[in-house]
Amino acid sequence: MILREATRQDLPAVLALLGDEDTVLDPTTITVGEAHERAFAAIGADPRNEMLVLTDGTDGTGTVVLGCLQLTYIPGLARNGQERALVEAVRVRADRRGAGLGAELMRLAAERARERGCGLIQLTSGKRRTAAHRFYERLGFARSHEGFKLRLEP
Amino acid sequence: MILREATRQDLPAVLALLGDEDTVLDPTTITVGEAHERAFAAIGADPRNEMLVLTDGTDGTGTVVLGCLQLTYIPGLARNGQERALVEAVRVRADRRGAGLGAELMRLAAERARERGCGLIQLTSGKRRTAAHRFYERLGFARSHEGFKLRLEP
């Protein structure tokens, strides 16, 4: 099991994961729109953003995407100038849950952030996702904050 | 009242705000360490990060820093490829609270993110900061998520 940066070939599988959390969508049925292409390229070009995929390969060539998440490395003045890592878009394939893949995904992500020198890794999870909350607490995360969001209209 | 990018001259005042939330520290007593210099330069050099200060000037030259926050613009595959804005390090000078400066700071930040094309602005606030929670809810933010953090040891 490895966590590696997503390539353009992985993009349909990543969009399949993001598109419906509880259904296994066939990546070949996914339409990759222009906005997706632009956003994926923007993530790839930004040295502080990574779209990562968990695959079954051990050599970086695994092509079956079992899970994904995005890491954003945020520079800041606190914690002696250490970056913090923000996690978004965490997904594990619906038909592969319950086998520890999510924990492995998060463990590898935290290890990646730690190796980069981040002092903190953080994420938010919707209030109603109580199973996810227990999952993050089991991994050692402290549920220490309230998460606020405001939609912005164009 | 304007919100503008912090310059190097503002850095001691920003560190004074970040250093002690409830005391007005004299910026001239602040030691700007090498880690602070590096982190401030990293924020300034990153097109997706801004350290912003609220000042009393109307022409961008105001030098009294009344508040600050950091915005990080995060590219992503959701929401048709729109960026989201993450807010960190929100502070208002302790001796100027209760006069609406915090609301103005957040209003200007949301407007800045909206003008950039962000579809969402988000932040987390410590569980015990109940006055802050009411403040964000009054500004229209939905307290929709739980915030998780995990410290990473080097």
Structural description of this entry:
- 2 copies of one chain form a homodimer.
- Chain A is an alpha+beta fold and 154 residues long.
- The first copy, chain A, has a single domain (2-138), classed as Gcn5-related N-acetyltransferase (GNAT) (Aminopeptidase).
- In chain A, 30% of the residues lie in helices and 31% in strands.
- Chain A has helices at 11-19, 34-45, 101-116, 130-138, and strands spanning 2-5, 49-55, 65-74, 84-92, 120-126, 142-151.
- Chain A is globular, with a radius of gyration of 16 Å.
- The mean pLDDT of chain A is 94.
- Strand 5 (120-126) of chain A pairs antiparallel with strand 6 (142-151) of chain B, so a sheet runs across the interface.
Key attributes of the depicted protein:
homodimer; 154 residues; alpha+beta; Aminopeptidase; five-stranded mixed sheet; 4 helices; 6 strands
Present the secondary structure layout.
Two copies of one chain form a homodimer.
Chain A: E1 2-5, H1 11-19, H2 34-45, E2 49-55, E3 65-74, E4 84-92, H3 101-116, E5 120-126, H4 130-138, E6 142-151
Parallel strand pairs in A: 4-5
Antiparallel strand pairs in A: 1-2, 2-3, 3-4
